[in-house]
Amino acid sequence: DMGGHDTYMHKEIHEQADAVDRVLRGRIDDRFSTVHLGGLNLDAREARRIRRVKILGCGTSYHAGMIGAQMIEELARIPADAEPASEFRYRNAVVDPDTLYIAVSQSGETYDVLAAVQELKRKGARVLGVVNVVGSAIAREADGGIYVHAGPEVCVVSTKCFTNTTVAFALLALHLGRTRDLSVRDGKRIIEGLRKLPAQISEILKQEELVRELAEEYAESRSMLFIGRVRGYPVAREASLKLKEITYIHAEAYPASELKHGPLALIEPALPTVAIVPDDDLLEKNRAALEEIKARSGKILAVAHQEQEKADRTIVVPKNEDELDPILMGIPLQLLAYHAAKVLGRDIDKPRNLAKSVTVE
Ligand code: F6R
């Protein structure tokens, strides 16, 4: 039942405020400015012994993991990174007892992720799952974890589950942070930010008409470049993936900081750039990147917290705490991909060549 929407994708994009409300529900502990994650199976002493965090997932879940790694590093000050599970399992990686491994999966059935989990467990590692489907193979195989409570996701491409997974990681980062050295004050600040998310998502979705108009213009592109720096980079990657999956327009994501090391050569009026420009300590650096693109007659669409002078168009999104901004900044670009696919007459819920869960090697 699509409840009046023309596709599951559209329905699921619009379910995100409620979905985020669900992942937060019952987990916030105001007394200690932290969160409770019942299924983690990780006591405080164990949490303090973690020396590294390694996050494994595929596709969109990998991108959510990239955002999660940054949050864990920022809030808990534990070195963290994300890697495609599909790569990890084939490279005979060093498995380290002081590393916390986290497998991320919407379906909980993705074979590359499951195989990575099994290999890790065989070698004695502790593995947590950040999973949507309750009781799925990865959830069962993991030592504990967090359910992201996005609800059923029917469209082949992931939207609400991506958003909820990034929120689940914010909860984990806050929990690990408050078990270690994150101050009460920062804990409170993050909790306040988390509570604002559902209303801010609704606010973003109200701009759908503007985004639809932009999509009409961008649907004609042969290729698009997505850029972002640090917190903005995984957002750019995910937006680029969503666009290519459902429109079949070629799209590439690059760290904005890497532009001058190669991709600037591509800039010309026919290659539009979508830039993620959060209002954080890297704003000036990002503005400089927009200037570089503009100087080469590149067309720019910015997703930012304030109108960007160098951009042709800006989608303004509400500001949250710096660490939580990536949760929100990609949401208008889900709509951009959706409306561009619609203009092109694509089969949005079932893009060619793709399956909802990849249970084979
Ligand atoms: C993209 C998409 C895929 C999945 C990937 C992992 O929109 O849906 O990239 O994210 O196949 O799937 P899960 O999260 O079920 O492990």
UniProtKB/TrEMBL annotation:
<dbReference type="GO" id="GO:0097367">
    <property type="term" value="F:carbohydrate derivative binding"/>
</dbReference>
<dbReference type="GO" id="GO:0006487">
    <property type="term" value="P:protein N-linked glycosylation"/>
</dbReference>
<feature type="domain" description="SIS">
    <location>
        <begin position="214"/>
        <end position="351"/>
    </location>
</feature>
<feature type="domain" description="SIS">
    <location>
        <begin position="43"/>
        <end position="188"/>
    </location>
</feature>
<comment type="function">
    <text>Catalyzes the first step in hexosamine metabolism, converting fructose-6P into glucosamine-6P using glutamine as a nitrogen source.</text>
</comment>
<dbReference type="GO" id="GO:0004360">
    <property type="term" value="F:glutamine-fructose-6-phosphate transaminase (isomerizing) activity"/>
</dbReference>
<dbReference type="GO" id="GO:0005829">
    <property type="term" value="C:cytosol"/>
</dbReference>
<keyword id="KW-0677">Repeat</keyword>
<keyword id="KW-0963">Cytoplasm</keyword>
<keyword id="KW-0032">Aminotransferase</keyword>
<dbReference type="GO" id="GO:0005975">
    <property type="term" value="P:carbohydrate metabolic process"/>
</dbReference>
<protein>
    <recommendedName>
        <fullName>Glutamine--fructose-6-phosphate aminotransferase [isomerizing]</fullName>
        <ecNumber>2.6.1.16</ecNumber>
    </recommendedName>
</protein>
<dbReference type="GO" id="GO:0006047">
    <property type="term" value="P:UDP-N-acetylglucosamine metabolic process"/>
</dbReference>
<keyword id="KW-0315">Glutamine amidotransferase</keyword>
<keyword id="KW-0808">Transferase</keyword>
<dbReference type="GO" id="GO:0006002">
    <property type="term" value="P:fructose 6-phosphate metabolic process"/>
</dbReference>
<feature type="active site" description="For Fru-6P isomerization activity">
    <location>
        <position position="356"/>
    </location>
</feature>
<comment type="subunit">
    <text>Homodimer.</text>
</comment>
